[in-house]
Write the structure tokens for this entry.
Amino acid sequence: MSKRYLVVFTQSFEDFRLPELESICELHQIKLIRESYSDSHPYCVVTGVSDADIHTILSRCVLIQFVAEIWAHCTSRQELCGCQFSDHAPLPGSFNIILHSFGRKVPMTEKIDLIEKMEYLPLTGEVDCSNPDHVFYICENYTNKKDEGPTDVFFGPLVGRSNRSMIDSYSVKKRLYIGRTTMDAQLSFVMANVARIDRGDLVYDPFLGTGSLVIPAAVFGAFSLGSDIDIKALHGWGKSTKKGEDKYQTHQNIEGNMKSYGLSSLYLGSLASDFSTPLIRDTPLFDVILTDPPYGVREASLKVNSDNHLAQSQFSLSHQFLELLNFAARTLVIGGRLVYWLPVIRDLYSPDCLPQHPALSLLHNAEQVLNKKSARRLLVLRKTRQATRDDTAHVRGDEVAHGNFRELYFAKSS
């Protein structure tokens, strides 16, 4: 009989959990089966996988806290305390039992009382809270019945914890070079995961900025390059955005970041160019296009004018995103992924306002709420066939949700 596992997600970015998990499983050809899941709580029951598969998933996913094997799934503590575990051989060595709850803060005295009632477990060693040989979890879900007790009580041994230390290791707060719109580390790694970036891939960011997205690509073993119209951002010229600093130093740039992380050999460099007239040849070249196009909110959108000078762009954001899809359809390999952010006004959004292309298939559409008025959606598209001359990106419905996003973002509520 296949083992059942409890995946415990982080309590943030709920809309991104399954896209990240499914993308990592697809990358490593892991046939995971979801038995139950709701984004209203962090617990997901899965089966069809092995301990080795779980460790592979945990090595990449940053929106998972830990995974435990399910020895018991009950509807109350009383039912849990009546479970028999005769099918499991006695485990020698020290152990620790941890209670994890969602929807209610369980007092310490209550935790200790519950754990002491589980003396019948097949454990022969001593309790060790600091460095145990075996860790067991009791996970309680109080989503719907906070006052009456948990709706679900899971129990079982820890299989492994995720590699969320990556978020701290590559934190923007510790980074040598950042800008006002630098993507935070957690979302950067989520984007790289839903893009299915693998060792040896070629990744391109046409709106490179300060290079926050080439970092997770390189961490996962891919070669990366990018382009941007803002040459100052590419080279770290001008006034620093870090508190207490005046101007960027000569080593504060994208290359400096990659060198500080030991990733220089995987960064191929950057091009200073206007994306409306891209310098990349129209040939299938990239495994992934990973990007966060400008919205014109914290940084003005730029364009090269007729005098070959930089000027604030006046064209619709929709035109920018349509050109991005056309570019991806021409330059991605078959099966390659385009992953990008689309800003929207929440009240005006509908799936029909999403840019589409005949050669690209939408895989995931996840929302990050920015405020009451606006959000941005992480869109993941896969190239399914070669684009023809007649293929072009389009919007099936009304583009108003994002076409004039900047004006609507700053408009006063009526």
User: Anything to note?
Assistant: The chain has a mean pLDDT of 89. The CA atoms of residues 211 and 254 lie 6 Å apart. Residues 317-331 form the longest helix (15 residues).
